[in-house]
Design brief:
Elements: H1 2-39, H2 48-69, H3 72-96, H4 100-118, H5 123-147
Helix pairs in contact: 1-2, 2-3, 2-4, 3-4, 3-5, 4-5
């Protein structure tokens, strides 16, 4: 019994240390995210899809950390950015006819990570995550449709 208490204390202490370390990391990550967001409009059209995907992937990391920390409102804002910048990546990839395959793959991986995350959060938070997954699936479909558009056969 005493061993379990000691183990629980160590686990709690470790969780606090991880959260403290993560909060410092999130501040630094937030600064680089802001820098990346400001570069989108000045980056060449061919490089925009990858930059937007990088932002989406980082925001997904942030959202995951925020859900773990219990900061649901901030996590939902990060999820909104995941969807928004994934949409921009889709748009830029289709417009430039570049990075379509890479965009589809990255968006598929983010959707899978969100599926995993959905099973670890409270039930009331699952709806927002599922809506983001649905949006990402639509983006994937758009990219696949653009890559493999079939002409009308006569």
């Amino acid at each position: 019994m005493e061993c379990r208490r000691r183990h629980s204390r160590w686990a709690a202490a470790l969780a606090v240390l991880i959260l403290l370390g993560q909060s410092g990391r999130m501040v630094a990550l937030d600064q680089t995210l802001q820098e990346m967001k400001s570069r989108v409009s000045t980056t060449s059209m061919a490089d925009r899809p990858q930059l937007c995907l990088d932002i989406s992937q980082r925001q997904l990391e942030v959202a995951t950390q925020l859900y773990v920390a219990g900061e649901t409102a901030k996590a939902q804002a990060a999820l909104a950015d995941v969807a928004a910048f994934s949409e921009l990546a889709r748009d830029y990839a289709i417009q430039s006819h570049r990075k379509q395959k890479q965009s589809e793959i990255a968006i598929r991986k983010m959707a899978r990570k969100l599926e995993d995350l959905k099973h670890t959060v409270l039930q009331e938070d699952q709806k927002e995550i599922q809506e983001t997954i649905n949006r990402l699936q639509t983006l994937r479909d758009d990219l696949l449709g653009s890559m493999f558009s079939l002409g009308v056969k006569k």
